[in-house]
Amino acid sequence: MTHVSHINNAKSVDSKTARDADTPLLEIRDLAITFDTSNGPVHAVRNAHLSIMPGETVAIVGESGSGKSTTALAAIGLLPSNGRVSGGQIFFDGEDITKASSKRIVELRGSSIGMVPQDPMSNLNPVWKIGFQVKETLKANGLAGANSKERVAEVLAEAGLPDAAARAKQYPHEFSGGMRQRALIAIGLACRPRLLIADEPTSALDVTVQRQILDHLDRMTTELGTAVLLITHDLGLAAERAEKLVVMYKGQVVESGPALEILRNPQHPYTQRLVNSAPSMASQRLQSQKAKDALASAAAQTQESVSADGHSVPVAKDPMVVPSSVSPVIPGHAAKGETILEIKNLTKVFKLRGALGKATDFKAVDDISFSVPRGSTTAIVGESGSGKSTVAQMTLSLLAPTEGSILFDGVEVNTLKGKALFDFRRRVQPIFQDPYGSLDPMFNIYRTIEEPLKIHKIGDKKSREKKVRELLDQVSMPASTMQRYPNELSGGQRQRIAIARALALNPDVIICDEAVSALDVLVQAQVLNLLNELQEELGLTYLFITHDLAVVRQIADNVCVMQHGRIVETSSTDEVFNNPKQVYTQELLNAIPGASLLV
Amino acid sequence: MSENLTPDKGTTEPVTPVTRQGKISSRTIEHFVAPLEETPLAAVDNVDETTVSLSLWADAWRNLRKQPLFIISALLILLVVVVAIVPGLFAHVDPTSCTLADSAEGPRSGHPLGFTLQGCDVYSRMIYGTRASLTVGIFTTLGVLIIGGIMGALAGYYGGWLDTILARLADIFFALPLILGAIIINQLPLFRDNKSVWTVVIALVAFGWPQIARITRGAVIENRNADFVMAAKALGLSPFRALMKHVVPNSLAPIIVVASISLGTFIVAEATLSFLGIGLPFSVISWGNDISAAQTQVRNNPSVLLWPAVALSITVLSFIMLGDALRDALDPKARKR
Questions:
Q1: Which residue from B minimizes the CA distance to A450?
Q2: In this complex, do B41 and A269 lie within 8 Å of one another by their Cβ atoms?
Q3: Computed from CA positions of residues A226, A232, A237, A238, in that sequence, does the dihedral angle turn out positive or negative?
Q4: CB-based contact (8 Å) between A174 and chain B?
Q5: What residue of B is the nearest CA neighbor of A160?
Q6: Which of residues 274-333 of B touch A (CB under 8 A)?
Q7: Which residue has the higher pLDDT, B89 or A17?
Q8: What is the ipTM of this complex?
Q9: A88, A28 contact by CB (below 8 A)
Q10: pLDDT tens, A149-180?
Q11: What is the pTM of this model?
């Protein structure tokens, strides 16, 4: 990236760049932001304060709804129309933005404060070429000049797009997610702003792409001396990329300070909770409460307080999910450890419509084999497009395989019909990724959980209601939830309802297709804990599809790593983490943010 | 995944186990901790039990009740419906007892709007004409909903060759002009001699269903791949029952909106056909027929034409306004809290 520095002075010399490096570039004091909604004013942010020195990277960490994005949007004057700054000041370079005219804020945007938005899929205009969209930014800030084409190519090349001049002539749909995000970074940094606001810049991307993009962003902003305000929900990522952390919770800053110090010595209970459940920091599999109790009593007897494999247990310290009533273990049909699900030489070929109506074959799943022992968790890990969800759908018999076989309890699944298929459905249940899509918005929670019982004609009205109550209790939801509708619940709560629905038929196997990927860290930890407790209690077998190796660490016993439709590595979780055989697996492991920071 | 995507690797870094240390600033950064009493720690992801729980329909109703557009249109429609059911309450003069002596007379006591050329009471005919228009509107909408809804739902849900056939069939009906089609249907031996309200309903349904079919198809396609449908199938629900239980109820909102707007347009279409003499027979009292009869008098006695036209416009307008209000209330995007 040597070409970055000499382009740097292409921008008209800004007298302010020579300012004292000890005065903050951005300073937010006692900021309060209020949204006017139909239910009255909502105080989204209260008493927030933070400061960013020139060239510094500061990360705001918090769960969704904590006010982290709102705070950042206020700094660039882009609050939604029903939101307003109701108190406090935002100083950018000594100038109070909250009192600045809208003309002045437009001036600042792009040229002094750049922005990289969250979703690369919707933030590029699909009808304009990438190059045009970069040029637009340059023009708006009077930096296009005579040779704007070369300038556009330079800017794109800096962001790490190879063959930039040709890429500039392409449309957004011809770019992958990672490339779009690079284009957005190019746009954000095109006018050499002194502050870049990056709002969850990589949360929509695969981990390996995420790492590349963040590495690149790091390098670029260091070379340009740009200060970065990074907004993220991932504590590990924040600690790895920023000098300073600001932890927000319910619209307030609860803790701020040097990144590593906060990570190692969190003071506020919320930060402690975050650190404890950050998946990237997990060093071993979750243990159920029962197993822990057994362990503790064993340890007490032998006066040895060492856990199973001699490691400390940083996860699951927080007793968030402890089912109050642990019902006796329901034994499965076969003994624990026996193979319940066996996949042999499974292949799925999709016909893709190509140019001129010619169909081309696309091998989504290519000759994979693995088996799942009863009562354990097998994870399939891979990036988007690796074919892992296709495997899940075929295992659920919702999609017919092209070749190969799936044996469930010794019976071939994809030839099942009628009654046999109906019975198979009862024993294998899915939990899907998107908590907002997996529950019918027209059904209240009672009908949602009752539906499987009704379909399978189990019990009468009264016994079904009792069962629904039990299931809600099992997933730690109050019985009053029964009359609610999905849109009244948060993502994590919906996912717990989806778990309750899946459990209604006492299945043997649950297939979790990215079941926790859409959830906040704490909620994710809560759901993982719940899944783990239920596994212990009910002897469930999980097939866990995920892109996140950090999650695998916490829940899985065995791992299959998938790449381009093939399984490249299969072994126990410990083996994969401690001794990865394949380059690709190593790459995935390296991409876990913050993995090397804590332990 | 489309295969023409360019790979993500912008710059390929060699894979070596990296240990990233995190950044350590040369500046001193103050470690701030908020006092705990300011932000008490709540349990993770609690259910807010204080809010009232509402179904989609209850929620929509709560929104509707506050909309002036809805209140006005609903009151007008209520009035129109009552008039259609018991016209005798509103007009005490028989609309068919016409005396030529009163031909084109102006308003007088008991006859507030005057008389037509045939000597019939304008007010009374306007009131009694409501029933025919509303009947045509309501039954056409019902017919269109049944045929178009079934066609659209099946085409959208099953796709493939069924979709191709049904979509082309709908396109053919779309391509035929309504008035031409209505003339042909009216000339069929079956209808030529016994024209009635139902002839008009059949003609309008035959050419009106493709619109609802299209809307239904779109809404069903949007929902058929939803995770909750997949989940229901994985629970053992048959595809057809998944369509009925999950896909159709979730697709109803746009259909209801379009149906209420087209109810208005069907009333207009009926009036148009009657005006052209290919709609309701003259024995049926209807606004379209009255407008048609009054057109010869438009220069010297325009009020005879005006009143049925006003009644028609108000009725149509209120159904269209109702549709608009429903669209706002049933907007699924507005429901994501």
A1: B235
A2: yes
A3: positive
A4: yes
A5: B10
A6: 332
A7: B89
A8: 0.75
A9: yes
A10: 888 888 888 888 888 888 888 888 888 888 88
A11: 0.78
